[in-house]
């Protein structure tokens, strides 16, 4: 499957909608788009992963790189993810504790506290 990356503005956040597979072949396209967005001075990012079918370590590296870039400018990256397969990867790698994670774009955009774990989802959830 291919990768689609769309960017839109919602409130004070830049939402990056990702659709498809993020792997060693497609991750450079996502990295390029996130670098372009951060380079344009947009440092409040919401990355919507709900339509992502597959995410490998290269894709995880792209997300971490984006987080480092925007944090250097006092920004943030918030992930929207409801896919159990991806949530499991984020938990196993410990990235679920690094990224602020949300159930919807609306929740991510409206959060003013940058809580790393949204209401209704427990950090203690065991990987399935």
Write the layout of secondary structure elements.
Elements: E1 3-10, E2 13-22, H1 27-39, E3 44-55, H2 57-71, E4 76-80, H3 84-92, E5 100-102, H4 105-110
Parallel strand pairs: 2-3, 3-4, 4-5
Antiparallel strand pairs: 1-2
Helix pairs in contact: 1-2
Walkthrough of the structure:
It is built from 4 helices and 5 strands; from the N terminus they run ββαβαβαβα. The chain is α/β, with parallel strands linked by helices and 128 residues long. Helix 1 (27-39) packs parallel to helix 2. The longest helix is centred in the middle third of the chain and has 15 residues, at 57-71. The radius of gyration is 13 Å and the shape is globular.
Characteristic key phrases:
single chain, 128 residues, alpha/beta, 5-stranded mixed β-sheet, 4 helices, 5 strands, disordered C terminus
- Quick one: overall form? globular
How many strands, which pairing sense, and closed or not: the largest β-sheet?
Answer: 5 strands, mixed
Overall number of strands: 5
The helix content is 25-40%
Class from helix and strand fractions = alpha/beta
Sheet with most strands: strand arrangement: 1-2-3-4-5
Question: Into which percentage range does the β-strand content fall?
Answer: 25-35%
Number of helices: 4
**What is the N-to-C order of secondary-structure elements (H for helix, E for strand)?**
EEHEHEHEH
Average pLDDT, all residues: 90
């Amino acid at each position: 499957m291919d990768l689609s990356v769309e960017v839109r503005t919602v409130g004070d956040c830049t939402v990056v909608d990702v659709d498809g597979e993020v792997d060693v072949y497609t991750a450079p396209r996502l990295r390029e788009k996130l670098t372009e967005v951060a380079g344009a001075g947009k440092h409040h990012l919401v990355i919507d992963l709900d339509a992502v079918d597959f995410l490998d370590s290269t894709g995880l590296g792209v997300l971490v790189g984006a987080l480092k870039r925007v944090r250097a400018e006092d920004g943030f990256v918030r992930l929207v993810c409801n896919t159990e397969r991806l949530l499991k990867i984020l938990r196993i790698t410990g990235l679920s504790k690094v990224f602020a994670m949300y159930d919807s774009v609306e929740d991510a955009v409206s959060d003013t506290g940058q809580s790393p774990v949204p209401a209704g989802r427990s950090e203690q959830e065991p990987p399935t």
